[in-house]
Amino acid sequence: MWVLLSLVTCLLATSKASLIGRCELAKVLHQAELDGLEGYSLSDWLCLAFVESNFNISKVNENVDGSFDYGIFQINSHYWCNDYKSHSENLCHVDCQGLAKPSISAFLNCAKMIVSGSEGMKSWVAWRLYCSDRPLSYWMTGCHLE
């Protein structure tokens, strides 16, 4: 009985998430011309999306400082978007909720702005910890972009 209840709970939690497949995301990122942007490959972007949100477009996470991270790349409300809850520099000039919706154009534009800054992908702590200076080509295994 408990096993069945746990399975149903997991399925319900999964169904609420807006997940995108790894190769599907690779195609979207390729079409948005992120491959090679500021020297970062599609594998860097895929690794970032995995370590930040496990490919969940609608993920929202509250941080200890009261700010929130939004979307597949977990873009922070303190710096990059306006969540109307706390002070925000809103450097991407976008509503944070728009970064966690199934339409991904808003987060792509904001991510391009972030990676074009002086820190590049180092702006994301998770990318520094889990993706930087590691072989990442396996992220593209089986993905056909054409």
Describe the 3D structure.
A 3-stranded antiparallel beta sheet has the order 1-2-3. With 146 residues, the protein is mainly alpha-helical. Helix 2 packs across helix 3. It has helices spanning 2-16, 22-31, 42-53, 105-115, 125-130, and strands spanning 60-62, 68-70, 75-76. The protein is built from 5 helices and 3 strands.
SSE map:
Layout lengths: L1 H15 L5 H10 L10 H12 L6 E3 L5 E3 L4 E2 L28 H11 L9 H6 L16
Antiparallel strand pairs: 1-2, 2-3
Rg, rounded, reads: 16 Å
Total count of domains: 1
Total E-strand runs? 3
How far is it from the N-terminal to the C-terminal residue, by CA? 47 Å
The residue fraction in helices comes out at 25-40%
Q: Which topology does CATH recognise? A: Lysozyme
Low-confidence stretches: 1-15
- Quick one: overall form? globular
CATH architectural name: Orthogonal Bundle
Order of helices and strands: HHHEEEHH
Instruction: Report the structural category.
Output: mainly alpha
So what's the CATH class? Mainly Alpha
The helix tally amounts to: 5
The overall pLDDT average reads 87
Query: How would you write the strand order of the largest sheet?
Result: 1-2-3
Beta strand % = 5-15%
Q: Please summarize the sheet with the most strands.
A: 3 strands, antiparallel
